[in-house]
Amino acid sequence: MTTTVIQRKLNEEYCRNANSIKAMVDSGLTHIPSDFILPQNMQPRFTKSDKSRDVPTIDLSLVNDESERPRIATAVTEAAKEWGVFKVVGHGISATLRKKLIQVIREFFDLPLSDKLQFLGPSGDTSTPRYGRTRRGKTGHQSWRDQFHHRTPPLDFEELQSWPEKPETYRDTILEWTKEIQKVTDTVFSLLADAYDLQPRRLQNLMGTAESGMEATMLAAYYPPCPQPDVASGIVAHTDPVGMVVNFEDVPGLEVQKDGTWILVAPDPESLIILTGDAMEIITNGRCKSCEHRVLLKEKQDRVSALVLMKPSLEAKLCVAPEFITSGPPSRFMGMNMTYREYLQTFRRKCSDATVDS
Ligand SMILES: [Fe+2]
Predict the structure, then answer these.
(1) Is 91 part of any domain?
(2) pLDDT digits (tens, 9 = 90+) for 159-185
(3) Where is the secretion signal located (predicted)?
(4) What's the 337 CA to ligand 1 centre distance in angstroms?
């Protein structure tokens, strides 16, 4: 068969299994459809990377010790400023729960496609649980990933009942996980507030309104093995529009951009990976960096990751908080004054690589 015929057959297979990359891979691909092949300047084989470096790691275990807390708060603010990403250990989440989480996510994606397709819907809609693919990137290319996402508590009974019944441990495990992650993000926000000399919940309050506070979304991501990992991406390079993201993964693959080089976040069975997003960058007038990131693929190995996205309320005003306005030349964030909803509409138009952004 000629290359053109092979590619046409691949693209037909892709259309048949458009809602699941896993289903496409399970059908036995040796090459990938053209929609997934990135331009050369975005392909992992042509972009500069450094696997000898790692992002900062911060131990939270002594966060309630008054003599240690200022040092930890400084470490968090420096990492947020320099990197926009850091790992945390000493977070108090048990190895048992971490293992259960990865297992239940794997079990979910291993369900028959028909079970997952009952949750099919657009990726931006989080009012009910949604299964499907990531939106096309701003270059029009597809990311090699299936995903499932929904809001996290507090939720009314009806919304909780809309969570999957299979695997049967899904609801309890995700409830426990998101409760623990809420505690960790509260700690990180309060450490940042300490270092910036703000009230403990000031940052969360800036991302809420009188009517509604910050929201959170649980996003489970599945990256199937990819026959051509050097030319595609699990998720195309992007920043997240949200306030903060907590990532836990079983196989390394997340890369972050630092000084023009891609840095692989090193494998670690204990660490949570925390990224600060656009909303925090804007509010803090650049004191927190919005971390650009992407996901590498493997030819023979799949990967799952569990993301909790801490998001501003849709009606919250996204602008530099008065506490971060300085007397120097105005920064690029100073003209910003729109609701988070309006920002998402702009962001989606300009850069639709966002994972889940509403
Ligand atoms: Fe992201």
Answers:
(1) yes
(2) 889 999 999 999 999 999 999 999 999
(3) none
(4) 23
CA of 329 to the centre of ligand 1 (A): 30
Measure 48 CA to ligand 1 centroid, in angstroms: 20
Instruction: Residue 144: name the closest of 12, 77, 274, 236 by CA.
Output: 236
Alpha carbon of 355 to ligand 1 centroid (Å): 5
Contact call for residues 258 and 83 (beta carbons, < 8 A)? yes
Is residue 10 in some structural domain? no
Evaluate whether residue 175 is within a structural domain. Answer: yes
Ligand 1 center to residue 135 CA distance, Å? 12
Asked if pLDDT for residue 357 goes beyond 50, the answer is no
- In a domain, residue 7? The reply is no
How many structural domains is the chain composed of?
A: 1
Tell which wins on pLDDT, 211 or 259: 259
Instruction: Tell me: pLDDT of 100 over 70.
Output: yes
Whole-angstrom Cα distance, residue 143 to residue 356? 13
CA of 111 to the centre of ligand 1 (A): 25
How far is CA 188 from its chain centroid? 17
User: Got the DSSP string for 291-326?
Assistant: PPEEE---SS--EEEEEEEEE--TTSEES--GGG--
pLDDT at 7 over 80: no
Range of the domain at 96: 39-351
The CATH number covering residue 279 comes to 2.60.120.330
Cα of 252 to ligand 1 centre, how many Å?
Answer: 15
